[in-house]
Amino acid sequence: MRRHDPLLRALPSALLAALLLMGSSAPSHPGSPEPQASRLPRTLWVMNHQRWSPAEQMLAVTLQGLANRRQPRVWLRAGGMSAVVLEELQKEGTQLREAASVWELIGALKGEIRGAIVYRLGTPSVGVATSLCGPMQGVAVEESLLERAQSAGLKVIFDARGMDERQTLREHRARFRSGIAVEQATEKVGHLRDFAVARNAFTFSTTDPAFRTEAAHAVGPDALIFGWGDDEFRWVRDISRANATGVPADWSLNLSALQHLSAGKLQRPRRPRPATEEGVRYIAFVMSDGDNIQWLGGNFVHDRGFWDSPLRGQFNMTWEVAPPLAEVAPRILRHFYRTATDRDGFVTGPGAPGYTFPHHQPDRRSLARQAAGYLRRSDLSVVSVLNDNAGRMEDTIPLLELPEVEGVIYKDYAPYHRRKGAILWHNGKPCVAYRFLLWEGIQSPEQMAQEAAKMPASPKTDPGSYALVNVHAWSFRDIGGPMEAVRRAIALLPPDTRVITADDLIYLLRENFGKRAGSSSR
Predict the structure, then answer these.
(1) Contact at 8 Å (CB) between 290 and 322?
(2) Within a domain: residue 73?
(3) Number of domains in the chain
(4) Residue 498 phi, psi (nearest 5)
(5) What confidence tens digit (pLDDT) does each residue in 472-485 have?
(6) Phi, psi of 157 (to 5 degrees)
(7) How would residue 520 be classed by pLDDT, with cut points 50, 70 and 90?
(8) By CB distance 3.0 to 4.6 Å, which of 38, 165, 449, 471 could disulfide with 492?
């Protein structure tokens, strides 16, 4: 429905891999892996691994994870934000050294490697090898490459063939870092696994809901699960039941290096707060899928339908971004903050710290405490929540009680605007449900504008004068992308309508209704 919806499924796998690149984060609670910002790397090995065979890609990314555990040493060449950050590093003085093959790099980094962990492509041993490379300081060698690896001086330190993830978790749990795991499909061998190796993260692939919950619980409490599952709803539900959150990252690249690159104190752009006008209605458009760090870290930056749209800056627009970026790829978040116009606003992607259904969380207050650190580091104060349809807006109260949170914007799983703009108040802070949804087949720009014209225009006395519009990131490609859909909708709105950012909408609601709303009311 969201991450792997028809637009993405229609792309050939090679093109998809080139488009979707980065993202993820480490948990900010006791026992979690905290990457230390390193000095600027003097030299960085660069590999163009997408030209290689799957076995060579797996070897390359597990080697990258080992080499990047303490500082950035190896980079996988790609487009999008990977190219942006690499260009930054070059301008700052980092020298690039191209690796013609993974074998050249093995020779150069031999001191980082204790030996080979043997596995077989297309079997669960792919996840087993990924899980054990970090703790055992090995690289994953497919059985077809074993003779070549031994000729390069790598001895076999573990044979993962015939093993599965359940056995690995049962026998090697103590080797894995708490607070993090990676779910990555067995066939995806050239992405994200560097991060798993660098973090000693248990890595698995499953279609079994019970095992997914078991794995997320085993590496908890409040774990972050990077990657993706076989189905969006089941993936989020299963990890939520373990009080974990998800970070869509299965096509990510270079996280093992990005996590170490300091970006200084992250500060989203500020603008003067608006004053309330009488006789108008206020609407805020919010782009969906900002939890998807592989997209934010990929071609999002150069896509004319998104950040590179010529329309950006012509009207107020709100962008979801993922708080975990502040931990695992702070330079990506810094880039968006620095290149934002004065009409770009920011809120979190669905959930904080990651994508989760609050309805299924056993301990929502614990997760809210974890979220607070991510919100401070990412400088975000409005949290977007996507909940199971069986959930309630009251599920967001632990978030509303955080001093870091000014308000929550709420969407149901399907459709996002199921509650038609309902507002829950708690201690003067609003949880505001989406009223409209720009999504092909659900609500067009014309339909959305027609409905908005029916809104009251009494923003000091009627909270119905405010509306959130969720913009489906993967719709409207045929007309130029979601930003063009927003432009068309705005052009059709009545003249007594003001388009503002979502954080400003939350601010105006609090200013006009927060004091009179009571401790917890609708």
Answers:
(1) yes
(2) yes
(3) 2
(4) -115, 125
(5) 999 999 999 999 99
(6) -105, -15
(7) low
(8) 449
